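Task: sequence design from structure.
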């Protein structure tokens, strides 16, 4: 009898199919479990970033408020010193105020790092490197003598060395929270198109209306990189304020009698534990140099104007005594949530979670039973007793002042090469945008669209396609 090949019985074949099906189901299930763990990790890290960012920015704003109060109390002490004709004491107090404009913000910087770390955010090697680099710039470049004077005049003797040492001390411990509204003295202040983030945003999003409203001929007239005017040098800044968490104060020649009621001044002195009867007309009726609010920075809170064309981010009224811009703190923290689910190529993946937060010291002065803004009398006086988180969009993040490392590198390192030679750097998102811009077909498409559709660009601010949202730069979390 010949042997027949044995074919598997139906039952066995079926069990094999079930095994394969079970295996597939298991793989799917495993992926779902891993994926849900991933999601939970991301949500957890997002919560962690939020807690750390908020705690960090509140710590910074608290130090800003305390420093403003100290500088205000020193102004009151100076009124006593001037009244007594004690110029030595007055000079010493003014010197202390100049130092406080740096040490206060540096204490804010240090406190914000501690708060971020206590909430579980690790030092970020990029942030740390940038602060160390900047300390070197302060130490070596700011002190350069040009024509007998320092590149950036020192607000007090030895200020730049002092300041660089403080920055290094913070960076030595690792920077976890990036001060997002830092404004360096070397930063450009608008002007050149290539220094405007809005230009890059318009190119990347093909927002032709932006060109129509801002540079109507640019799309047709542009030739190549030689078209660009030279990049501007660092513009004038007020060197009396730290570049991180600045208080935006200046020394101002004032006659106190012209800006503040003497009885109000004496009441504040009494509240600070000083003898108000010691304040004489020598202090109140002669021109003296006081620490005052820089009116260019302590304006109204325009971005919070509920009656404006774009009432975002609030719709309710702001009490008049709180309606001031000025010193605020903005922080960014980054956390990484590593994924369990592998990428398509089997690699390990992770998500970077960025959180930005803003906070501000609040307070008010009292005059005739009314509460008025802390900067109402120009001179800095003790007034701050509160801190609050504020919407990012209502904070003082100028479009050039970000602690955005990629943007800063682009401005400082890539643009000079691009304007000189047309060469763009790989791996930089802003350079990629300029590559798009350099394509003549891209610009021709925009010019053509505008020649047919420019009427669509005339819309009320804040509404419709191409309209500018107005106010601050909108940034999501
Ligand atoms: Zn670049």
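Answer:
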């Amino acid at each position: 009898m010949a042997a027949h090949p044995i074919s598997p019985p139906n039952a066995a074949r079926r069990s094999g199919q079930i095994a394969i099906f079970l295996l597939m189901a298991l793989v799917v299930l495993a992926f779902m479990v891993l994926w849900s763990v991933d999601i939970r990790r991301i949500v957890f890290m997002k919560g962690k970033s939020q807690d750390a960012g908020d705690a960090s920015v509140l710590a910074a704003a608290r130090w800003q408020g305390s420093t403003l109060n100290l500088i205000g109390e020193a102004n009151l002490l100076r009124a006593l010193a001037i009244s007594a004709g004690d110029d030595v004491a007055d000079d010493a107090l003014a010197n202390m105020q100049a130092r406080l404009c740096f040490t206060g913000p540096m204490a804010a910087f240090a406190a914000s790092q501690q708060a971020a770390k206590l909430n579980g955010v690790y030092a970020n090697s990029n942030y740390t490197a940038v602060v160390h680099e900047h300390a070197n710039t302060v130490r070596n470049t700011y002190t350069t003598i040009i024509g007998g004077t320092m590149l950036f005049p020192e607000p007090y003797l030895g200020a730049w060395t002092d300041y660089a040492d403080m920055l290094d001390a913070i960076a030595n411990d690792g920077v976890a929270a990036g001060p997002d509204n830092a404004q360096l003295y070397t930063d450009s202040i608008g002007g050149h198109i290539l220094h405007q983030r809005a230009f890059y945003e318009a190119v990347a999003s093909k927002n032709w209306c932006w060109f129509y409203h801002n540079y109507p001929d640019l799309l047709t007239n542009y030739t190549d990189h030689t078209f660009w005017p030279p990049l501007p040098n660092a513009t004038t800044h007020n060197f009396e304020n730290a570049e991180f968490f600045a208080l935006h104060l200046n020394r101002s020649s004032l006659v106190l009698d012209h800006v503040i009621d003497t009885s109000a001044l004496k009441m504040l002195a009494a509240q600070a534990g000083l003898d108000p009867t010691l304040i004489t007309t020598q202090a109140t009726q002669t021109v003296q140099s006081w620490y005052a609010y820089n009116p260019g920075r302590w304006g109204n809170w325009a971005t919070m104007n509920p009656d404006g064309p774009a009432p975002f981010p609030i719709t309710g009224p702001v009490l008049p005594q709180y309606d001031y811009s000025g010193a605020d703190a903005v922080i960014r923290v980054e956390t990484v949530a590593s994924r369990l689910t592998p990428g398509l190529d089997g690699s390990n993946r992770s998500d970077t979670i960025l959180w930005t937060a803003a906070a501000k010291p609040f307070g008010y002065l009292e005059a005739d039973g009314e509460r008025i803004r802390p900067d109402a009398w120009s001179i800095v006086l003790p007034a701050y007793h509160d801190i609050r988180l504020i919407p990012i969009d209502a904070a003082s993040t100028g479009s050039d002042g970000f602690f955005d490392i990629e943007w800063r590198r682009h401005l400082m390192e890539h643009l000079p090469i691009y304007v000189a030679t047309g060469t763009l750097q790989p791996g930089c998102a802003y350079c990629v945008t300029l590559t798009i811009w350099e394509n003549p077909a891209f610009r021709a498409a925009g010019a053509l669209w505008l020649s047919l559709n420019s009427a669509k660009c005339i819309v009320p601010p804040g509404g419709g396609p191409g309209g500018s949202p107005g106010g601050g730069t909108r940034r999501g979390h």
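The two ends are 80 Å apart (CA to CA).
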